[in-house]
C-alpha cells in the first residue's frame, strides 16, 4: 500500500479544511461575534498539520482503488474531527460526541441534528453547519482531483471511492477537467438558487445558508421550524432546486454542451422524475383533507417528496402527523434516494432500476428458459460484474442496517423511532418519524447509539465499502509491515553513516 500518498493527500485535506474554516471567521466579523476566534485557532492548527503531512512529496504517485478507499474513509474521519472542534471548544455544543455527531451529519449531508434550538447558535456557527453540507455534497476529494496530479489510474479510483452511485466515469478525457466541470455546475446551480431566493425577499444570510444546505442535499436549517416559516414562493424554489441537485450530473454535462436530446434520454433521470411525480400525486390526494386546498396539498407534498427522495431533510410541515400511507411512502423514498452521480444519498435510483430489471429477467428465464435476453441500462448492456457488485451492495446494506437496528434498540425506544433513525442516518436524510420526526432531534440517544448512527452516516455517504475497508485486517497488517520496514531502513542508514 502506498502510505506516502495517503499521508500526502490527508495533508492536502487538512490544509483545504483549514482555509475553508476561515470563511466562518469572515461571517463572525460581519456580525461582530467573538466565536470567530475559535474557527481561526482550529484553521491555523489544521493548516499547520496539513503542511507537515504534505511537506514531503511521495516518490511514487501511483494510487489504486485500495488506497483510494482508505484515503477517502480516513479523510472524511479527519475532516469531521477537525470540523467539530469550533463547536466544542467554543462551548456552543459542550459535548464532544454531540459536536462530532453534528459535524459528521453536516459533511455527510445527512442533516440529523442533536440541537433542540438551532437559532441559539451564533451566525458563524450556523453558517459552518450549512457550509459543511456544501463541502460534503460534491466531496472534498473531488475538489482535490482538480489540483493534484496522480497516476496509475489514480484519479478515477479516488473519485470512485467518494462519489455516490454504482459506477463513476469520466465526463471528459482528463479526470482533472471532469472534477473542475462538476464544481462549475455545482457552484453555478448554488448561485442560481441564492438569486431566486433573494427575489423572494429572503435575507441574504438565510439565502446563502439555505442554498448551501440544498446544494449538498443536507437539510440543516437555521430556523427551529426548518422551512415552515417561509412563504410558498420560497418553498417552491427550494423544492425545485432540491430535485435538481438530486439529478445525475452527467445529464447537466450533456445540457451544458448542448446535447439536449441525449440528456432527455438518460434513463435514471426519467425514472427519478417519474417516481417523484407519482409520489406527489398519491400524497397530495392522501393529505388533501388536512390542507386548505389542492395547491396547498401539492405544495406540501412536493416539498416533502423532493426533500426525502433527494435526502435533503428540510421540512415545511410536520409530516409525522400525515396519514399512514403518506408516511409509508416517504419511508420508501428514504431508501430509494436520488440519482447516482448527484449530491443525494440513499440506495440510488439506478441500483433500484437495475435490481428490478434483474428480477424481471429471472422471471422471464423461468417462463422462457431458452430465451437469451441481455439486461440493459442507459441503452447499454449491463455487465455481470455490475450486477454482482449491486447484489453485494444490497446484502452488505441489509447486514449493516439490521446490526445498527439491534444495537440502537438496546435503549428500548419504540420500533418506529429506531427504524427511521437508522434509515434517516444510513441514507443521509435527517429527520425520521416518531421521536426523531421533523419537529424533534437526535439528542436524546446515548453516546453509544450516537456513534452507531455516526458510523451509519459515514458508511451511507461513502457507499459502504470505503469505510468498511478500514476494518479489514489486511489493511492494518500492510500499514504495520511498511512502518516496520521504514524503521529498519532508517536504522540501517544510521549504521552506514556511523561506519
TrEMBL record:
Topology term for the membrane: Multi-pass membrane protein
UniProt GO cellular component terms: plasma membrane
Keywords: Cell inner membrane, Cell membrane, Ion transport, Membrane, Metal-binding, Potassium, Potassium transport, Transmembrane, Transmembrane helix, Transport
Residues where K(+) binds: 109-110, 218, 311-312, 428
Regions that span the bilayer: 12-31, 37-56, 68-89, 131-150, 181-199, 233-257, 269-288, 329-347, 390-410
One Pfam family this sequence matches: TrkH
Localization in the cell: Cell inner membrane
One GO MF term attached to the UniProt entry: potassium:chloride symporter activity
InterPro entries recorded: Cat_transpt, TrkH
Signal peptide: none
Record-linked PANTHER family: TRK SYSTEM POTASSIUM UPTAKE PROTEIN TRKG-RELATED (PTHR32024:SF2)
Family of the protein in this entry: Belongs to the TrkH potassium transport family.
Protein name: TrkH family potassium uptake protein
Organism: Agathobacter rectalis
